[in-house]
Design brief:
By secondary structure, the protein is an alpha+beta fold. It has 28 helices and 13 strands. The strands form three sheets. A five-stranded mixed sheet has the order 1-5-3-4-2. Strands 9, 10, 11, 12 and 13 form a five-stranded mixed sheet that branches.
């Protein structure tokens, strides 16, 4: 029997078969009822109190109605139609039937309905409000409704999942969708959303790419560039389709910046590099120029002393007297910033270059990782710089870096006597250097720094102390695009080279000693860092070095923030079991089982996508994946004694065999070939 009952006279029955997720989606259901009304009546049984009923089927609808009344959307005495059953057994069976026999709506039908509403002229915002969903949800369903016919038909027929359909929908280009669908439907692993998304987006650029940010969205669109929003990724994520146009616009904008810089600074050349780094090979083709910094004038020295004293006093006040956030503290911080700017201006004035010299030198302009143009901090010349204002050299005078005296001083000595006297003088000098730790430390840093600056010039400094850069085991290896390599390049550019332009070692050493502790400390840190040889966290072998692991722990290095495994640098070069073990470590046996039958190439791509935060997985799995590393890359080993037998080392030397000659340097990941040496010696430790 049907009758109308006030909502306030209804209560949820304990016999309602839905016990879990009772409150899921109540807000959405309430919004839909507010817009459309109650489209399905409740099933109830009477209580002892007249006019009161308990709801056997429709508990979520009852909660939604109660929510609308609490919100004031419906009146307190709002009535709804109910079907009254007198038999409890029948009411429980009705509740079961209503919940159990319900068939979820086909995603394709759902998308078609949303698209129909939009085509009628209803805005996405209105549809979202009436259906109790977000505007983005509506836009996603409309995008799916506009998929290429073969893809949409496959979704409607249940041949592909909603996740697969969303992967095709990252682009609105139906022709591209059709082509990729034709390729993927015959592929063994063509139903993987990550593989589909990579194929669809091949040849596009992300909006957060450094070059795209440099060009700018407005300029790209104005030039006819096409953009597609990925509605199924992070909101605001875009794909820029016209890569050639991006390259053209970036090159044009960078050339304009280079021309303006060259004109304003009076440089002979400014070479634009439309990349995030200046290639090392280009630098090596030129001569590096270092302008000597002049000494501060008396007025500048006095001003620096005044500013430094004021700065120290303000810092003391901030630390001891002024409360955080107070007006006085803000004023002090503002003054400190002004002092720093003035000190920088004074320092910059010391490095001014003679216009006659500027006409011989130049530099590079490139794109920083943040999308901003960057000027290379070092200067270069095509030929050694000649100072037209320098006085002519006198015959027999002091020469170059050796600070040699007059060649006619004293009688000519025999070679043997020269060697003996030189040895005696060396002993005297060494005894005195050893007794002066401060000068010895300065000399140590200076010799290493000079080796960095004049690495190609081979300037004799008569010392065995070197800081030569460690060789890479792979000839010609370059990774300038990595975060670590870009950081090292930035560190090199920030080093103070004001001393390097002076003509003799004596002058350079004195100028170097005049640098402050921070500047000299930066030189020793960089010089030592470049000597470190490649090592890996493996059980044994030449690449094992537990001390490097210890250094990594002391520095609290989080490798996952600096390096991520890809198909090219890891997954495509290990055995399939290593990849499956990685998946199990990330997501357990279920994730491993999901991909156990995948081809090796597809599996490598999937693992790489997952570990770089691009896979469609649960939040917990994504977090583990983006932090996952092969054990060999972690700084978690323990220091071990050297295990290489001396006999083996001597044997290698006697036979002329290079201990590293079997180390594979093949970077080709185009086939399923596996590097046996790497797998057996390195990656057998990967969990």
């Amino acid at each position: 029997m049907m009758q109308s009952v006030k909502v306030k006279n209804l209560s949820l029955s304990k016999d309602n078969v839905r016990k879990s997720n009772r409150d899921a989606g109540i807000d959405t259901l309430a919004a839909n009822i507010a817009a459309q009304g109650l489209l399905q009546n409740l099933i109830v049984t009477p209580l002892k109190k007249a006019g009161h009923f308990t709801v056997k089927a429709g508990g979520r609808r009852l909660r939604a109605l109660q929510l609308l009344i609490d919100q004031g959307t419906l009146p307190v005495d709002h009535t709804v139609p109910v079907l009254v059953l007198s038999d409890d057994d029948n009411s429980i069976e009705a509740s079961l039937a209503e919940n159990f026999q319900r068939v979820p709506m086909n995603p394709a039908d759902e998308c078609t309905v949303f698209n129909f509403l939009i085509q009628k002229g209803t805005t996405a915002e209105d549809v979202a409000k009436r259906q109790g969903v977000t505007t983005r949800f509506v836009e996603q369903r409309v995008r799916l409704a506009e998929l290429a016919p073969p893809v949409f038909e496959a979704l409607a027929a249940g041949e592909i999942t909603l996740g697969v359909a969303q992967a095709y929908a990252v682009t609105t280009d139906v022709d591209r969708q059709t082509r990729v669908f034709a390729q993927m439907k015959t592929s063994y692993y063509g139903d993987n959303p990550d593989n589909i998304r990579r194929a669809i987006l091949n040849g596009t650029v992300k909006a957060n790419d450094a070059k795209a940010r440099f060009v700018g969205r407005e300029a790209y669109v104005a030039a006819g560039g096409r953009i597609e929003s990925d509605l199924f990724a992070t909101e605001g994520d875009e794909n820029w389709i016209d890569v050639d146009l991006i390259e053209t616009l970036a090159a044009s904008k960078l050339e304009a910046a280079a021309a303006e810089l060259g004109k304003s600074e009076g440089l002979a050349f400014v070479t634009p590099i439309a990349a995030t780094h200046v290639p090392y090979d280009l630098e090596r083709q030129l001569h590096e120029y270092h302008a000597p910094a002049r000494a501060l004038t008396e007025d500048e020295t006095a001003r620096v002393e005044v500013l430094s004293a004021e700065n120290d006093a303000l810092i003391d006040q901030l630390e001891q007297e002024l409360p955080d956030g107070s007006a006085e503290a803000e004023a002090a911080n503002a003054r400190i910033e002004a002092i720093e700017r003035e000190l920088e201006t004074i320092e910059d004035a010391r490095h001014e270059i003679d216009p006659a010299l500027k006409a011989q030198i130049g530099t590079f302009v490139y794109i920083g990782g943040d999308g901003e143009p960057r000027v290379h901090t070092r200067l270069f010349s095509e030929k050694p710089v000649v100072d037209p204002n320098a006085p002519p050299k006198e015959s027999g005078g002091a020469t170059g870096d050796g600070d040699a005296g007059d060649g006619e001083q004293g009688p000519k000595l025999s070679a043997t006597l020269v060697d003996e006297l030189a040895t005696q003088r060396r002993q005297i000098l060494a005894a005195h250097v050893a007794s002066d730790p401060g000068l010895a430390l300065d000399l140590t840093i200076f010799l290493m720094a000079q080796n960095v600056v004049f690495e190609q010039a081979h300037i004799p400094n008569h010392s065995t102390l070197k800081s030569s850069a460690a060789g890479f085991p792979i000839f010609g290896f370059r990774d300038e695009g990595s975060m670590a390599s870009q950081t090292i390049d930035d560190q090199r550019q920030k080093l103070d080279t004001s001393w390097a332009g002076l003509p003799t070692m004596t002058a350079r050493f004195d100028a170097f000693r005049a640098l402050d502790d921070e500047a000299r400390g930066a030189w020793v840190a960089y010089s030592i860092a470049r000597t470190l040889e490649p090592t890996l966290n493996v059980a044994e072998g030449y690449r094992s070095n537990g001390f490097h692991d210890h250094l990594g722990r002391l520095l609290d290095i989080q490798v996952e923030n600096w390096w991520r495994p890809t198909a090219e640098n890891f997954f495509g070069r290990v055995k399939k079991t290593v990849m499956l073990d990685a998946l199990e470590e990330i997501g357990g046996p279920i994730l491993r089982g999901r991909y156990k039958d995948a081809k090796k190439g597809d599996l490598a791509g999937t693992c790489a996508s997952l570990c770089n935060g691009q896979g469609i997985v649960e939040a917990e799995i994504r977090e583990k994946a983006t932090a996952w590393l092969p054990e060999a890359m972690r700084f978690e080993g323990i220091e071990k004694a050297a295990r290489t037998p001396l006999r083996s080392s001597f044997a290698d030397n006697e036979t002329g065999t290079d201990p590293d000659e079997d180390e594979d340097t093949d970077l080709d990941t185009g086939d399923d070939a596996v590097i046996d040496h790497e797998e057996e010696e390195i990656f057998s430790q990967v969990a």
